[in-house]
Design brief:
By secondary structure, the chain is mainly α. It contains 24 helices and 2 strands. β1 and β2 form a beta hairpin. α2 crosses α4 and α6 crosses α10. The protein starts with a helix and ends in a 10-residue tail after the last helix.
Length: about 600
């Protein structure tokens, strides 16, 4: 409870910037403490009474994203800096762990598994080749054994006590208030209803927003709403009543794609590479990695009411197809440009940050590993060694052929646009002449020609009339973007595999995988830099010259979204099959709704 009148007399509580001071109550408390003179804030605990909200998964995540964004802005303020200097150690630790520390810890926890897997992959790829250990001066223990020994010490049964300690405060409070039996039953119920999946996803989301605010800023208020938690969120959007177009765009995939799905698929890919390279570890290590991947991919769908209903699944399939493949993928382009290509302050602020530094560091490690392996390959196979050209191509990003195709596609698109504009002009002149002739034949005078501005507006309205019935933007003429993406993926795969083919033939599989990872990182870096160029204000001045780069970015990103969304969607079909069997065998007790509501729910046709 804040005494507003007293605060006003002591300097006020208002702030000038709505973005920086998003958490106004936190800033009021920090400013009050900074005014000194022995001011203290007394914290009192009150009993809860008629204050709880029955919120769904998306509402809860929206609330935590707002808190995490506000905390990211707090870390950069002078109030946080000054309080950290003047507070004593016990008070400073309480201030840290109650405010920024919690959110920063969530960011580190969400980064821990990807860092472990990427380090594991680097160590395995840098190990000696199995049949050529005598040429490489290898240690007795292999890299797989060394990593297994390290991971078995980190990921063991001792972590069970850590997980139990995380639930101990709530367990103790419920025990004191309601008894031991209720506390044990509640703890078991939480584990059986996948509470671990919820909190793993929440840690990833909180960490993303904290780091994003420190990097870019721009925090804003997020309304959590008061919607019922029984409302189902779609996968991509909702179709119109006649089923001809996508009426609304927005769903679970679009909400969390950039937050968790992309990183989850990259972690899954890296884990598969580790397994192929002979990575061995205990069951606890793979369990933790698997739980992280599963939570990042499927948590929003697992807690979505009626997610696995068959009729909703068919509607989601139609929406997915309309979003990516209809109208030249114009709706995907509009969503991508609006959400992931927000305009920054310039190229330096869009690209040169800590993420770029870490990317260059990882790239340098992989280049060093591959360069050392190439030197050994030249020694072992002196007669059939890779030439300088092939070695340079193996260390180059696989985007030369793709950029050439993008230039070709842009020229074809420009020619198609010029032809269509010429036809429209000729059609407009022919229509005006026919209208004048028909007016004279009916006995009227010559029809007055409307001004060119009016003709242009009428033509533009006529050209967008079919699409104006919905919210879909207009597509560009030329080759469909999905087809361009397929051709670019094939070209990039060919350019990546061709220089490394000789390594695979000679059974240097670890060097081959290292080369593939280097190609993948180089391609990601090139796309990241290209996105930075597209975010710059100066990109609009390039006009037609920047179109090949835009096609390159859009084609690669839509290929990523199509693959990830299809992987998630069709893996969810397993749940649809199980749910259909559940409804046929036991219609009065739906297991998925029992997991969501923790109670016996209604049937979908009665909800």
């Amino acid at each position: 409870i804040m005494n507003k009148q007293y605060m006003i007399q002591q300097g006020g509580v208002s702030k000038a910037t709505k973005t920086l001071n998003l958490s106004e109550d936190i800033f009021a408390g920090m400013d009050f403490m900074l005014r000194g003179e022995g001011r203290k804030i007394r914290h009192c605990e009150y009993f809860y009474l008629t204050k709880g909200r029955d919120l769904g998964f998306s509402a809860v995540m929206g609330f935590f994203s707002k808190l995490a964004s506000g905390t990211g802005e707090q870390i950069l303020t002078r109030q946080m800096f000054r309080l950290s200097q003047i507070l004593h150690l016990p008070e400073a630790l309480s201030f840290y762990y109650a405010h920024a520390g919690y959110y920063v810890t969530q960011a580190f926890i969400s980064l821990s598994i990807p860092v472990v897997v990427s380090t594991w992959l680097i160590v395995l790829a840098a190990d000696c080749e199995g049949s050529f250990r005598s040429f490489m001066n290898c240690p007795k223990a292999s890299a797989g054994e060394a990593m297994a020994s390290t991971l078995s010490a980190w990921c063991s049964w001792v972590l069970v006590f850590f997980l139990s300690a995380q639930a101990l405060p709530l367990f103790t409070q419920v025990w004191m208030e309601m008894g031991l039996k209720t506390a044990v039953a509640r703890l078991i119920k939480q584990w059986l209803t996948c509470s671990w999946c919820f909190f793993i996803f929440q840690a990833k989301l909180v960490g993303y927003y904290v780091i994003h605010e420190i990097r870019y800023g721009g925090a804003s208020y997020i309304g959590t709403g008061r919607g019922l938690p029984t409302t189902r969120s779609p996968f991509i959007g909702k179709m119109s009543e006649d089923g001809s177009r996508l009426a609304t765009v927005g769903g679970l995939y679009l909400d969390y794609a950039m937050l968790t799905y992309y990183d989850a698929v990259k972690l899954l890919f890296a884990s598969c590479m580790v397994y192929l390279l002979g990575g061995i570890a205990g069951g606890f290590t793979w369990t933790f990695i698997g739980l992280t991947i599963f939570s990042w991919l499927y948590a929003p769908f697992l807690f979505n009411p009626y997610q696995f209903s068959r009729r909703y699944f068919r509607e989601d399939l139609r929406c997915w197809w309309a979003f990516f493949f209809r109208n030249g993928s114009a709706q995907w382009v509009e969503w991508f440009d609006r959400t992931q290509l927000q305009q920054r302050r310039g190229f330096r602020h869009s690209v040169w940050d800590i993420k770029a530094f870490l990317a260059y560091f990882r790239l340098a490690v992989w280049v060093a590993v591959l360069d050392a392996k190439f030197g050994l390959f030249q020694v072992v196979f002196a007669s059939q060694a890779m030439g300088r050209t092939m070695q340079a191509l193996a260390l180059a990003p696989p985007c030369g052929l793709a950029l050439s195709l993008c230039l070709l596609f842009s020229c074809i698109e420009g020619l198609c646009s010029a032809c269509m504009q010429g036809r429209r002009r000729r059609a407009g002149k022919g229509g005006a002449a026919r209208a004048s002739t028909s007016a004279r034949s009916l006995g009227g005078g010559p029809v007055e020609q409307p001004p060119e501005e009016m003709m242009g507006s009428v033509a533009s309205e006529a050209s967008v009339a079919p699409a104006s019935e919905g919210t879909a933007p207009q597509r560009r003429c030329g080759i469909p973007l999905v087809l361009v993406a397929a051709l670019l993926m094939a070209a990039q795969a060919l350019e990546a595999l061709a220089p490394l083919h000789k390594l695979h033939v000679r059974q240097w599989h670890k060097t081959f995988v290292a080369g593939l990872m280097l190609k993948f990182l180089l391609l990601r870096l090139v796309i990241f830099l290209a996105e930075g160029v597209l975010r710059c204000r100066i990109f609009k001045c390039l006009g037609v010259l920047g179109r090949p780069l835009e096609v390159f970015v859009h084609a690669n990103r839509i290929a990523r979204d199509v693959f990830i969304s299809a992987f998630i969607f069709w893996s969810l079909s397993i749940g649809v099959v199980v749910n259909t069997l559940n409804e046929g065998l036991c219609p009065r007790c739906n297991l998925h709704q029992l997991l969501v509501y923790r109670a016996r729910p209604l049937r979908p046709d009665l909800a």
